[in-house]
């Protein structure tokens, strides 16, 4: 019973990461349009959700020739976390079943 709950929580986290990756894709695509009005409440909230995470990677990889490559590292980190949580979810379930 406890293992099933833990597994479900891990699955929810994997799904939350997928949603966050989608939001990050939107944010990265919006950087291609420099004339957007960033005072729009939707865009402000989008930036508030994504910029702290992206800023952590901007400190690691500075822009090269005006191109910000930090988003690539950010996506790689999220993908790795998603894979680890997914594997942990499967391990918890199979471990609880005695396989």
Structure description:
This protein is mainly alpha-helical and 99 residues long. The protein is built from three helices and no strands. The longest helix has 29 residues, at 2-30. The radius of gyration is 17 Å and the shape is elongated. It starts with a helix and ends with a helix. The relative contact order is 0.17. The model has no long low-confidence stretch (mean pLDDT 89).
Key structural traits:
mainly alpha; 76% helix; 0% strand; elongated
Break the fold down into its secondary structure elements and pairings.
Layout: H1 2-30, H2 41-58, H3 70-97
Helix pairs in contact: 1-3, 2-3
Explain briefly what this protein structure is.
With about 100 residues, the protein is mostly helical.
Largest sheet entry: none
Structural class: mainly alpha
In N-to-C order, the SSE pattern is HHH
Low-confidence stretches: none
Identify the overall geometry: elongated
Sheet-strand content, in percent, reads under 5%
Helix content: over 70%
């Amino acid at each position: 019973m406890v293992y099933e709950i833990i597994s479900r929580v891990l699955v929810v986290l994997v799904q939350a990461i997928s949603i966050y990756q989608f939001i990050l894709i939107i944010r990265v695509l919006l950087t291609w349009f420099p004339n957007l009005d960033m005072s729009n409440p939707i865009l402000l909230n989008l930036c508030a959700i994504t910029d702290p995470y992206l800023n952590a990677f901007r400190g690691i990889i500075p822009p090269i020739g005006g191109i910000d490559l930090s988003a690539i590292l950010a996506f790689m980190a999220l993908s790795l976390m998603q894979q680890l949580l997914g594997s942990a979810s499967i391990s918890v379930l199979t471990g609880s079943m005695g396989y």
